[in-house]
Design goal:
Elements lengths: L1 E5 L4 H11 L4 E7 H4 L11 E5 L7 H18 L3 E5 L3 H6 L8 E4 L17 H10 L2 E4 L2 H11 L6 E3 L20 E5 L8 H14 L4 E5 L6 H6 L6 E4 L5 H10 L2 E4 L9 H7 L4 E4 L4 H4 L6 E4 L4 H13 L1 H19 L1 H21 L2 H9 L1
Parallel strand pairs: 1-2, 1-4, 2-3, 4-5, 5-6, 6-7, 8-9, 8-11, 9-10, 11-12, 12-13
């Protein structure tokens, strides 16, 4: 089987998956050269890696030129199936010229998140076009599958659930030690991430654990509004910037716990990173997060928009060293057995076979429509 994997971000995920797939199938991987360079140490020599430049979305001449070059390369490789991550404004349109190839589409976010201004550069109808063009669709959890069915109208019979892949390097920054009572919020700072509720929880936390520190690392919204919410600014350590992979490893190694106070979500790539470093996760019961965090086993789940419940769970874990370390160890075990690159690859290859068979025997989507009348 010849598999063409292509993405315009998700570089770490794509390289790890392609390298694991290459043990079983022939893989050509196309990624932006600038983003991929940070993860090439994961790349298997068995992968046919073809990097490409990544123009800005608002550079139509460069984008159109790139699309024709990618189409030419893909036809030269002549894959049995294309695996496309997330979608991309211009490549979605280019799929019109690649209809002969079965398409597996991995959907990360069926709809743009609240406050994620960058996502709106890629209009939803164009994203939906690629989703609906796919022979098979990959969702990362059951709640996400239901959203895809309800919001996009894609038949559930062509949706396969494959978990997110591991992230981060557990061997990185080993000289960095965990800091007592350090709480980490990591990732893009958009309204849907619910950072305000962690900030509101701080006085409740430090009333019982005076030396607790909340580390906020990531860029996104104008941070001044969040600073104004802080009752005790001295209890926050803020890195309002793009965080390098080296710094990411240090932050996760230092953390006692990782907190995701989201008000909406489909899934989170932060959770696999936390588990890589054996850190327990406190997350809200929204979207697909409960499928990633096992309450009482790899972390705690709390209601969204509830700073008291969030503070209570944080306090409980910070005060119980044995429980905190056990939950972190359980998370790492979950990662290694369910989310490793090899485990995800084994679940992905059958999806490719389904896409190829569906394309050969006629559209599975058409059959579903005929059966449901």
């Amino acid at each position: 089987m010849k598999v063409l994997c292509i993405a315009f971000d998700s570089n770490e995920l794509s390289i790890r998956l392609a390298s694991a797939l290459a043990k079983e199938v022939e893989v050509c991987l196309m990624l932006p050269e600038e983003g991929a360079k940070f993860h090439l140490h994961w790349l298997s020599p068995d992968v046919n890696f073809q990097p490409f430049p990544k123009p800005r979305l608002r550079q139509p001449a460069k984008q159109i030129s790139l699309m024709f070059k990618l189409i030419k390369r893909i036809k030269q490789f002549d894959p049995d199936v294309i695996h496309f991550q997330k979608g991309h404004l211009w490549f979605n349109l280019a799929l019109t010229f690649l209809r002969r190839y079965p398409l597996v589409m991995a959907i990360h976010d069926p709809r743009h998140h609240m406050g994620d201004k960058g996502a709106y550069n890629q209009p939803q109808p164009i994203m939906d076009y690629a989703y609906r063009r796919a022979n098979r669709v990959i969702a990362h959890n059951e709640p996400m599958k239901q959203i895809i069915v309800e919001e996009l109208g894609i038949p559930e019979q062509i949706i396969d659930i494959v978990p997110l892949i591991e992230r981060g390097n557990a061997n990185a920054q080993t000289e960095v030690q965990e800091q007592t009572n350090e709480i980490l919020f990591f990732g893009r700072i958009w309204a849907y991430k619910g950072l305000e509720y962690l900030i509101r929880a701080e006085p409740l936390i430090t009333a019982q654990i005076p030396d607790a520190k909340i580390v906020i690392a990531g860029k996104g919204d104008d941070f001044s509004s969040y600073r104004r919410m802080m009752v005790n600014p001295e209890n926050f350590i803020v890195h309002n910037e793009f965080v390098s992979y080296e710094k990411r490893a240090k932050l996760f190694r230092r953390a006692s716990i990782v907190v995701l106070p989201y008000v909406e979500a489909t899934q989170s790539g932060v959770i696999p990173v936390a588990y890589t470093f054996a850190k327990p996760v406190i997350a809200t019961e929204v979207g697909g997060l409960p499928s990633q965090v096992e309450h009482g086993r790899t972390g705690f789940l709390v209601p969204p928009c509830d700073e008291k419940a969030l503070a209570d769970s944080i306090i409980q874990l910070l005060q119980d060293n044995d429980l905190r370390r056990q939950l972190g160890a359980n998370g790492k075990h979950k990662l290694e057995t369910e989310w490793s690159a090899e485990a995800v690859a084994k679940k992905t290859i059958p999806v490719y076979r389904k896409a190829i068979n569906d394309a050969r025997s006629g559209s599975a989507k058409q059959k579903v429509r005929q059966a449901t009348g």
